[in-house]
Amino acid sequence: MSPGGDAAAIEAVLREMRQEFLDEAGDAARDLLLRVEQVRHDTGGDLADVVRIARRHALVLRGQGESLGLSPLATLGHRLGDYLSESRSVVPALILDDLEVFLEVIVDLVEGRIPADTEQGPMVRGLPAKRGFAPEDIEVRDIEIMLVMEPGAQTHFVERELQQCGYRTVQIGSTFEALPLIVRTRPDMVIISAVMPGLTGIDLAIGVAAMPETRNVPTALITSLDPDNELLALLPGQVPVIHKGPAFADDLFHALDTLFLI
Fold this sequence. Notes:
Layout: H1 3-40, H2 47-67, H3 71-85, H4 92-110, H5 120-125, E1 144-148, H6 153-164, E2 168-172, H7 175-185, E3 189-193, H8 201-210, E4 219-223, E5 241-243, H9 248-258
Parallel strand pairs: 1-2, 1-3, 3-4, 4-5
Helix pairs in contact: 1-2, 1-4, 2-3, 3-4
Domain HPt: 10-113
Organism: Roseospira visakhapatnamensis
Protein name: CheY-like chemotaxis protein
């Protein structure tokens, strides 16, 4: 077989795999919508089971969507998993309402009502905001802040502070995963932990500030490094530094104010 024939055969296999994945993703989302209705009307099912199945569905979307080049579904999988990661304190009725929105967007994508090349920034802003730390009566602002930080107490603290001020938040635990999501979803601000496995947060901040696709995305660095640490001197001048410790609240306010997000 000629090289051109090989390429055509591979593309045909990929098309088949993508279609199978889309069919399975649609079936799973529709099944979850049915389970949501059953729990809502108390006709069967259990919220904990629905959340567990939805988390598994999110992981599948995130992994297979990325590997098959279906990035909108991968992005949705990440957002759904991130939302559910902090849903324990959310009122069950709100979880069901929010899950319904996520699942309907997934169905619209797999059935073609949302184009495969849709702009992902507006798409994710139409999804429910993460509610884990914010009281129900706080008005959520249309300002999205991406936290590139490993899961843990410090991340929870930062996310709680932002949510209680009405900001939409999304948490990414890997600098390598964060970069394409920054390009696709265009958050209003990215707060990056200086110490991250693999590619450091300082490296990511430098890269975001340098690349044409991302240089206009406001970025801040959060760190426990001493202010005169030589590594911080590598940061571009427009990247504010948020220091952990007593100055955290003031530094966070200053960073948000500097980037016109107050």
